[in-house]
From TrEMBL:
The lineage of its organism: Bacteria, Bacillati, Actinomycetota, Actinomycetes, Kineosporiales. Gene3D superfamilies: RutC-like (3.30.1330.40). CDD domains: YjgF_YER057c_UK114_family (cd00448). GO terms for cellular component: cytosol. GO terms for molecular function: deaminase activity. It holds the Pfam family Ribonuc_L-PSP. This is Reactive intermediate/imine deaminase. It comes from the Bacteria.
């Protein structure tokens, strides 16, 4: 059977540090939009101005990740309250899970989105945390 498929509505977006988004550290877009859904690449705790990992521990890194996610979402007139699914990657799961959760609870004014948290053995640039988001209108 030879069914014709509709043209893709997928769009990819790359932001500049002047938008408050750190430069990419690999071959990927900062976000992909398909219809009303926006898929954000995992954000690292890097300073957009320098591209360097922020100083401090899990709390400082979590806050930088939040700021980076918020900057990407702002490019679509969205906020973290538009998040549908969040995936969190923690390098030291047992040590940082509770401290991360304390900060994470402050990220949302409305109901919390669905979430998965995964312990990993390493993250790019030596980060302690990385977070990706799927958001919708």
């Amino acid at each position: 059977m030879n069914e014709s498929r509709p043209a893709s509505r997928k769009e990819t977006f790359v932001f500049a540090p002047s938008d408050g988004v750190p430069p990419q550290v690999g071959p990927f877009a900062h976000a992909t939009r398909l219809g009303d859904l926006v898929f954000l690449t995992g954000q690292m705790p890097t300073d957009p101005a320098t591209g360097e990992l922020v100083a401090g521990g899990i709390v400082e890194q979590a806050e930088q990740v939040r700021a980076n996610l918020a900057a990407v979402l702002a490019g679509f007139d969205l906020t973290l309250d538009d998040a549908l699914q969040v995936r969190v990657y923690l390098r030291h799961f047992d040590e940082h899970f509770e401290a991360f959760n304390e900060r994470y609870r402050t990220w949302f004014a409305g109901p919390l989105p669905a979430r998965t948290t995964i312990g990993v053995t390493g993250l790019a640039v030596g980060a302690l945390v990385e977070v990706d988001v799927t958001a919708g209108r």
